[in-house]
Structure formats: structure tokens, C-alpha cells
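Hey L., structure's done. Input below.
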Amino acid sequence: MVYKTFLHTVQTTLQERLGANYTILVQKIPKNNGTDLDGLCISKIKDRVAPTIYLNAYFEHYQDGIPLDQIIDELIELYTCDTRLPQIDPELLAHFDRLRDKVAYKLIHTKSNEALLTDLPHIPYMDLSIVFYLFLEENEYGHMTVLIHHSHLKAWGSTIEELYALAKENTPRLLPISLKNMLDVLKGIAKEHLGDDYREEFVNELISPDDQSPLYVLSNTSGLNGACTILYEQQLKSFADLLEQDLVILPSSIHEVLLVPYEEELCFEELASMVQHINQTEVPQADQLSNQIYYYSRIKDQVSLVQNLPKSSQLS
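Output:
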């Protein structure tokens, strides 16, 4: 069964199972870098809200041999019984005074999101754009967020300048900074995969001090849209002053960046090629931020785009 047939079959089968009192829709949900997800919306006729269940992963389960009837059963159970589905009251979105402390920002690549950005309030930032969203809830199952569109701004009678001022204050509070050296990150990955078999002394033997790259992972405590932490006031400045070095910023994804203390022997072209290779082979398209690299000057307290890199490093 091809993907489009799968979507149609899921929609019609759910309609048959749930009956005429329910509306079943499958619609494209635009995501980062021109990617789309297929969202299943199930609602009773008089419901004002319809939670979205993304079907892309369910098609992968179907391809792996999970029977279609089992998938349908899971979707119905998820809709009827699972409180993890996001429920957004449209009344809440109508009252900006109740949302001001929930406005946050994130970074996306400008050229790769030209179509999306036509409908979003945004601020240019080098080859990136600052966009805004509502951080409504965080629980053990994830986050509930709503991307802010021009239509929201018009309904609220607000401005881009006001959104930025609010997000500048709110985002570090809602999503505090997380800065770790790469050794700690590698240890965390090993501990997660090894579980009770994890032995720190064994990991230390595998990663000798000479092998430790001077890399630091900068994100936020939730790991959600953490690349925007380079916008947090004084954070890069404090870290660079602590090291007494400028910083090279490598965009690992929309969720985090890597910081490299600047040394004269660093080759920007090699770093850009590394970022591009990782984007092409390791990072899902929807999570990619940029193939460019950036430079932070602690004297100027300013991030700038490293110029004169090969044209092939342009994310598109």
C-alpha cells in the first residue's frame, strides 16, 4: 500500500468505525525547512477543538508489518483515552493578556522557509530568522506549543516589536540555558544506552584527555528549539569571558549549537564542511538549522556570519 492510499484508508476506516457524529480530516501540517507532516484530526460535530495525531510514523509501523486494523484500534484508543493529546482551547488564544508570559522565540533558516515565513511575524538574523510561538505547557509527555501567525498578531492588536520584547524576557525563563562539554554529553549517551552496565571509569579509558575535543553543547533544559540560546543576553559573553577566548558557533540543529573556543589554527572551511556533512547524513531535514558557521566576538559581544565560505555550504 502506497502512502496516499494508507492515509485515505485510515480516514475512511475511522469514519466507518466512529460514525456520522464524528468529523475525520487528514491535512498537511507545514513544518521547518519546507517539510510537511500529515495530521489526523478527529472531532465530534459540536467540538470546538480537534487534537492532531501525526500519521507519518504510523505508516512506518504499517510498513514494518503492523496490521492496519491494529493501527486503527491504536488511533481510536489514543483519541478517546489518552490525555497526552494536546487540547488547545481557542478561547485562550483569543485573549492576548493571558498569553503575554508564554510568548517565546526560536531560530529557523530563512531561505529554506521562504513560503512559511510569508505567514509568520519574523525578524531577520544573519541567514536565519527569529520566529515566535506560544509555549503553553510542558509535561512528561512533551510540549504544547502554537506557532504565531500574522492572523494572531492582527487579532491581538500586537506588533513584532512587542512579540520580540516579550520573547526576549520569557524564553530564558521558560527554557533555561543548558551548557555541557562534549565529554559529559558522550557520558550521558553511554549511560542511557548501557543502563546498569554503565561504568564511568570504562568510558574515561575509552575517551582519553588527548582525544577530548574542545566542544561544548549549548541548548536549553528541554532540548526544544535550543539553538535560540545564542540570543540570550550575556550567556555567550559570560562563557567567552570565562574561557578568555572568542567562540566559533556550529549549528548542530534547531535544537542545539556547538561552541568551539577560537584558535588561530582553526580552519573555517573544514568546520563548515563538517557541519554540511552532518546535516546531510545525520540530521533530519525538519531539524536542520544552517550549513553556515558563526563567530562570536567577546569584545564586540556580537555574533556574525563567517564569510567567504564555499557556495555549497548554503542550506536550501
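Confidence is low (pLDDT under 50) at residues 310-314. The chain has eleven helices and 13 strands.

-- N.
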